[in-house]
Write a structure and sequence with these properties.
four-stranded antiparallel beta sheet; mainly beta; 87 residues; single chain; Immunoglobulin-like
């Protein structure tokens, strides 16, 4: 996470939601503990099944702003494996 000036942002609360691209699946939720190091956060996230996912990251900034960004992922292979992804 970096600010508009390109500097790393630490101590940000991140909420992550993963949705399968087809209806009827329960979303996967995760959040950070706010302990970023040089703007890098490690969030344990479990892909519950293989397929196409849309991951939405909501970040609460120190100045009170909230920003949101979506990422597309394709998960292949064994579902249910716990992986850490960097945003």
């Amino acid at each position: 996470m970096t600010g508009e000036d390109g500097k790393p942002l630490d101590n940000i609360s991140l909420n992550v939601k993963g949705d399968m691209t087809h209806a009827g699946m329960v979303p996967v939720l995760a959040e950070s503990d706010g302990n970023g190091e040089q703007g890098v956060y490690h969030i344990p996230f479990e892909w519950t099944m293989a397929g196409d996912w849309i991951v939405t990251v909501d970040a609460a900034l120190p100045d009170g702003q909230t920003i949101s960004q979506q990422f597309d992922f394709t998960v292949s292979g064994e579902a249910g494996s716990s992986e850490e992804h960097h945003h």
